[in-house]
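in:
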């Protein structure tokens, strides 16, 4: 008889949009994905790291 293992993984996506205030045109979009913990303090640290990494790509180079 086979054994079945079940795992629950929470995955989160964070999206940051920067729009032109006058034209409402999207100027830049950053996104990060990752697994979430059931411990809020760990999630806070993960989010901080993701935002820091995301904004290393801002401002966008050449267009």
């Amino acid at each position: 008889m086979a054994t079945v293992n079940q795992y629950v993984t929470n995955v989160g996506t964070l999206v940051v949009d920067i729009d032109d205030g006058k034209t409402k045109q999207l100027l830049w979009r950053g996104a990060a994905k990752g697994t979430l913990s059931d411990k809020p303090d760990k999630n806070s640290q993960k989010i901080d790291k993701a935002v820091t990494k995301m904004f290393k790509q801002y401002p966008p180079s050449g267009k």
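note: The chain has a mean pLDDT of 92.
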